[in-house]
Amino acid sequence: MQVDPRGPRFGASVTTAVLVVVLVTGSWALLAAQAVVFAIAAFLGLRYAPYGLVFKVLIRPRLAPPRELEDEAPPRFAQGVGFGFALLGTVGYATGTTWLGIGATALALAAAFLNAAFGFCLGCEMYPLFRRITAKVRSEGKVPA
């Protein structure tokens, strides 16, 4: 499936704001909610992502058509990476391991900010490497050194 690249960038902007609030408040519940947003996008697809739906309904109709579309797989993978960090951060905050909550949230925030501010999707850049490694594991039956 092809997606408008402005949609994930809009989602990264909202995510950036949410993660800043999490870092300021230390709210594990808000971070858990963001983890659910990441999970929906990663496991069900970007067309079901809450921030993507807001973009599709409220923002995209007011914009010119995109110059080009992009494959859904890399941003979807990036959402999965975000889910992992948000889940780890939620566990950290919820169990009182605040350093873990702050660290995981800060890493997710850095990635979201790069996408929101500069259009650089860190998870998307990791995706080809992930594909090569998983292909090698499937073909050789072992993790490459």
From TrEMBL:
Superkingdom to which the source organism belongs: Bacteria
Species name: Actinomadura citrea
Name listed for the protein in its UniProt record: DUF4395 domain-containing protein
InterPro entries cross-referenced by the UniProt entry: DUF4395
Transmembrane spans: 12-31, 37-59, 80-102, 108-130
Lineage: Bacteria, Bacillati, Actinomycetota, Actinomycetes, Streptosporangiales
Keyword Transmembrane: yes
Sorted UniProt keywords: Membrane, Transmembrane, Transmembrane helix
Any matching Pfam family: DUF4395
Domain DUF4395: 3-132
